[in-house]
From TrEMBL:
Region (Disordered) residue spans: 474-504
Pathway assigned in UniProt: Carbohydrate degradation; pentose phosphate pathway; D-ribulose 5-phosphate from D-glucose 6-phosphate (oxidative stage): step 1/3
Cross-referenced Pfam families: G6PD_C, G6PD_N
Limits of the Glucose-6-phosphate dehydrogenase C-terminal domain: 207-502
Name of the featured protein: Glucose-6-phosphate 1-dehydrogenase
Domain Glucose-6-phosphate dehydrogenase NAD-binding: 22-205
SUPFAM superfamilies assigned: Glyceraldehyde-3-phosphate dehydrogenase-like, C-terminal domain, NAD(P)-binding Rossmann-fold domains
Keyword Oxidoreductase in record: yes
EC code(s) of this entry: 1.1.1.49
Function, in words: Catalyzes the oxidation of glucose 6-phosphate to 6-phosphogluconolactone.
Domain of life: Bacteria
Catalytic residue list: H258
Enzyme class, UniProt record, top EC level: oxidoreductase
Length: 504
């Protein structure tokens, strides 16, 4: 019996059938810190079949034992679930490795022989997913090699799937070119675009909060909500990502995917069901309706972090980072206003912001309600009624906070903000799975509700492209001191609307 499976648990777990996972980019941080531990955790939870195989592909001159050792070290350091000798023994028996480069047809021929051998010896049944944990520039080459080697072709009753990590292009044109290549090899139902934010428990819980509770959905509209703020703040700089980040920037890196997905899930109408097609249809409606500010200079803001303090340590600015040109115009902070002119949201703006080297690490969705209409409390000294907020914390402390006004104990009528707080860690005894656990399992099951299709990707770029094009003509971004909450232009953008950013 699996030690992590409670026999009293009546929930029916979704267990993947016989299959294999081929992982490209196994030497990278994502594979080592997230993907390999997620595979082990799934196996440890009893959600992978005994007939499962993990194959690594890289240019390193490794053998099977070398790669198995890499997986072992990764799992021991980063796995979420406890160590199990039995789980590791079963998993390690299905580990394989193929050495080669992306431009080497013989390496892909060897990969095909390896996959076929696993079908025969391991019982993977001809079902294989190819996880491209590699730079986006290499996607077309690898996908083409999978086609030319026959690896992308399923036999009768089997499946082949490809998993692509964001970013999906760097603008609409490049995203469409990438899709042409991928869709020429894999059918749409076999293409899984990974946005790991959509695997987070709190993001999935957003649907339950909205549609499983009569408490919230009736007031989830412009009649009661003044505006919505979606924030993704990081307290770190770019680290060693200069080669990737410079020229990409925060808007393309996280707003186009993570934040616009959160925006669509927050603003969409209730889907006919929670099947993939119905969920996507409602998200696409929102993205298609979304309007940008008429004046992008007033309705957007961008900045670069300058020297300052982080955690009591003095840090340098973006332009001082290794690999960054001193005249780089890449933004490390981006804020935009979006409007959805439909019956639910007309007149209620959405503000999206993301940045590096800000005050603290936090991702949240905050629905800020309109002021209470009572004239009595508006004139009571010390009262701050009308700033109610429902805050959905995506990370790091997953949960939900409801802020409202309450009377301060004493003889006078004084009202002060208080909060009611729900935290996953306190409310549930079991820990939340990592996002990649959920997403990898969904790939192996062929369950696509949380994966954006090309139409969503294209609509997101249609929203962002005019903004980045405008910024490219505006010269150097405004500097903001590390450890603060962004450039003054972002505060001014809100102030012009009579609002202010929340302090998470």
């Amino acid at each position: 019996m699996n030690p992590l499976r409670d026999p009293r648990d009546r929930r029916l777990p979704r267990i993947a059938g016989s299959c294999g996972l081929v992982m490209f980019g196994v030497t990278g941080d994502l594979a080592r810190k997230k993907l390999m531990p997620a595979v082990y955790d799934l196996a440890n939870r009893g959600l992978l079949p005994p007939a499962f195989a993990l194959t690594g592909f890289a240019r390193r001159e490794w053998g099977r034992e070398d790669f198995a050792q890499v997986v072992y070290e990764s799992v021991r350091e980063h796995a979420r679930t406890p160590w199990s000798d039995e789980t590791w023994r079963q998993l390690s028996e299905g580990i394989r490795f193929v050495q080669g480069t992306f431009d080497d047809p013989e390496a892909f021929a060897e990969l095909r022989r390896t996959v076929e051998d696993l079908d025969e010896r391991r019982g993977t049944g001809g079902n294989h997913a190819f996880y491209l944990s590699i730079p986006p520039s290499a996607f077309p080459q690898v996908v083409t090699q999978l086609r030319d080697s026959g690896l992308s072709d399923p036999k009768d009753g089997t499946w082949r799937r490809v998993v692509i990590e964001k970013p999906f292009g760097h603008d609409l044109e490049s995203a469409e070119r990438l899709d042409e290549v991928v869709s020429s090899v894999f059918p749409p139902d076999s293409v899984f675009r990974i946005d790991h934010y959509l695997g987070k428990e709190t993001v999935q819980n957003l649907l339950a909060i909205r549609f499983a509770n009569q408490l919230f959905e009736p007031i989830w509209n412009s009649q009661y909500i003044d505006h919505v703020q979606i924030t993704m703040a990081e307290d770190i700089g770019i680290g060693s990502r200069a080669g990737y980040f410079d020229g990409i920037g925060t808007a393309r890196d996280v707003i186009q995917n993570h934040l616009l997905q959160l925006f669509a899930l927050t603003a969409m109408e209730e889907p006919a069901s929670f099947e993939a097609a119905d969920l996507r249809a409602e998200k696409e409606k929102v993205l298609r309706l979304t309007e940008l500010p008429e004046d992008l200079g007033l309705g957007t803001a961008r900045g670069q972090y300058a020297a300052g303090w982080r955690g009591g340590e003095q840090v340098g600015g973006f332009l001082e980072e290794d690999g960054i040109s001193e005249d780089s115009t890449t933004e490390t902070y981006a804020a935009i206003r979006l409007d959805v002119p439909n019956r639910r949201w007309n007149g209620t703006p959405f503000y999206l912001r993301a940045g590096k080297r800000l005050g603290r690490r936090v991702t949240e969705i905050a629905l800020v309600f309109k002021k209470a209409p009572s004239p009595y409390f508006q004139h009571i000294q010390g009262s701050d009624v009308g700033t109610n907020a429902l805050v959905i914390r995506v990370q790091p402390d997953e949960g939900v906070t409801l802020r409202f006004g309450s009377k301060v104990p004493g003889s006078q009528m004084e009202v002060r903000d208080v909060t009611m707080d729900f935290a996953y860690g306190n409310a549930f005894t079991e820990s939340s799975p990592e996002a990649y656990e959920r997403l990898i399992l969904d790939v192996l099951l062929g369950d696509p509700p949380l994966f954006p299709r090309q139409e969503e990707v294209a609509l997101s770029w249609q929203i962002l492209d005019p903004i980045t094009t405008y910024w490219s003509s505006q010269g150097q971004p405004e500097q903001y001191r590390s450890g603060t909450w962004g450039p003054t232009s972002a505060d001014e953008m809100m102030a012009r609307d009579g609002r202010a950013w929340r302090r998470p």
